[in-house]
Each structure stands twice: as C-alpha cells, then as structure tokens.
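Section 5: illustrative case.
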C-alpha cells in the first residue's frame, strides 16, 4: 500500500513511524505554518530520508497535485492541516483520503479540539477518522472511539496519548481497505455539532474574580505546553501558569480572587472565585520556570495578588485581543 500523509500536528508521529515500518510511507506534506514542537514532523522525515514538502495554500494546487499524480497513492491520511484539501487531490487516492481528528465529531470541530475540551472541563473526548471533503472536519465518519480524559491531564499528555491510540484505529482502517471490505459509516446524529476557532490570548487568560479553582485548573491543563501556560500578571509582569492542584477547603470571605492566602514551604495557595482554593505548582516568569515553593522562598507573601490581564485598545479604549507569542 502506498500512503501520503498530510500533517501539521506532532500527534502524527506514531502514525508516520508505523507507516514507515510497513514500507508504505511515500511522502509527507505540511503547510508553510509548520512551527514549534510540530517541527518534529520535519525532523522525523529528514532522519528517515522521507520526502517532506512545506507548502503554501496555493502550492497545494500545483506541487501537491503533481506529487499525488506522480505517486498515485492508494490512501492519504491527514492530521491537523491548516488548509482545505482541493477536490482535485482528495479524489486521487483509490482507497480514499481520510482525516484524524481528536474529538467525537461533529462536536468540537476546529483547529485545536483538545484545548477546548480540556478548558471546558469535558470528562470524555475521543478520536474520529472521517473522509475528507470540501469542508473542515465535515466528511462522513468511518471510525470513532470515545476516550475518557485522565484526571489532571494536560494538552501535551492528551495529544501524545491520542497519537499512540490512533494506531489501532489506523490499522483497522488500512486492513479493511486492503481487503476490499466496506467501511462502516458511523451515525453521529445523536451528537450536537459545535465549532471552536483557534484560541486567542483572551481564551488563555485567567479571570480570578470570575473563575473557580476547577475552571482555572482546566484552563491551565489546556494551555500546557502548546500555549505556553495560562496567562495572568503579577506586579505588572506577565506570568504563565503551567501546573496547579486543587485544594480542599474554602478561602476567606471578602478576599478577592487572585489573592495569595498562604505561601511557605508547603507551596503557594491562591483564592479563586466562590472562595475556592488552588495551589500553584509551576510558573513561568521573566526569570524562568519556577515552582510555587521557590517563589515563596524568594519572598512572595500572603496578601500579594495575581491580577487579570487587561485587554484594552490604547487608542480607542475598546477591548481587543492581547497579542502574545505562543508555541505553535
């Protein structure tokens, strides 16, 4: 079987390795937006001497089309690509062109489904494989598996875990196609469709006076590591929080969210909305990555506060997106 993979998501790496071990992998296409930890795709292809193209949207209609016509793949598989695949391409593979998406479609369509599921506190996610059509995440579903999220699971852990778990589904897909059997079409009518765009800085921000400890923990997990951590400020310095732990008990009445109520060798404890409590474990400041314990040792004290990020247009006074640099 000859396979071309189209991917911008590092979760594809286990699949690349598996296809390559079978002698099936012919080429990998990424978009020109490939960056950050997703550059591991490029590194893998270079190490294995696999053809790898980084293409603009326009080049899909020229270079990618030429590659597909030359190689005549039996199947193509896509992971987290930035652009729509033209019909002239997705109709070429004789066994079909499929996309892997880390949610139970049609719920959580969009470019970063794991982020939004974790941020929203979902207890269950999943993996969907569907046929590629002219839309995004809209083709007929052929395989789907529900997977519970682990307690305290981060974005990085989830994507790595899903990437490994996808292999069994891909094996089933390839076996079914190779045998000439009909793929089962999964009925998803019982799921409510939802779409989430790429997260902006506002989506990454902690609002201490609005969000309780559980909501903030969900956001922090969703931001680790791809977004570089959930955003807050401390003494006018931007701070990224990467790991927290919930705390039993209740804070003090009349204390505003974001207030540090305890700081010593046992850690850094912050009051959130609804008087809920959270221990801050790992943060990123200008000085580097630090533990809450180390910050307490360096002099951060009870009564100090983490503040909400201010999203403000300095010229008009209207709220706008706060521009930050993220990891991908």
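Designed sequence:
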């Amino acid at each position: 079987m000859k396979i071309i993979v189209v991917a911008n998501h590092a979760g594809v790496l286990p699949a690349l390795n598996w296809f390559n071990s079978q002698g099936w992998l012919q080429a990998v296409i990424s978009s020109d937006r490939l960056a950050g930890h997703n550059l591991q795709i490029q590194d893998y292809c270079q190490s294995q001497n696999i053809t790898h193209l980084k293409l603009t949207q326009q080049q899909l209609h020229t270079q990618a089309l030429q590659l597909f016509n030359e190689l005549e793949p039996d199947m193509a598989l896509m992971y987290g690509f930035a652009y729509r695949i033209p019909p002239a391409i997705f109709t070429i593979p004789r066994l079909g062109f499929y996309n892997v998406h880390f949610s139970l479609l049609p719920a959580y369509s969009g470019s970063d489904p794991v982020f939004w599921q974790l941020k929203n506190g979902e207890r269950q996610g999943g993996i969907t494989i569907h046929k590629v059509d002219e839309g995004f995440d809209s083709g007929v579903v052929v395989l789907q598996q529900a997977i519970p999220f682990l307690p305290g699971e981060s974005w990085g852990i989830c994507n790595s875990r899903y990437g490994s778990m996808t292999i069994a589904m891909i094996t089933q897909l390839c076996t079914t196609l190779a045998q000439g059997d009909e793929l089962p079409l999964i009925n998803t009518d019982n799921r409510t469709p939802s779409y989430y765009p790429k997260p902006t800085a506002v989506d990454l921000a902690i609002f201490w006076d609005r969000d309780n400890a559980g909501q903030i923990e969900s956001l922090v997990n969703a931001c680790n590591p791809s977004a570089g951590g959930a955003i807050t400020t401390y003494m006018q310095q931007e701070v990224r929080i990467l790991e927290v732990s919930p705390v039993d008990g209740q804070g003090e009445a009349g204390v505003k969210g974001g207030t540090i109520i305890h700081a010593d060798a046992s850690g850094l404890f912050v009051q959130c909305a609804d008087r809920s409590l959270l221990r801050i474990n790992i943060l990123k400041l200008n000085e580097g990555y630090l533990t809450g314990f180390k910050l307490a040792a360096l002099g951060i004290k009870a009564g100090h506060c983490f503040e909400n990020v201010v999203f403000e247009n300095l010229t008009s006074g209207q709220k706008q997106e706060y521009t930050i640099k993220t990891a991908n």
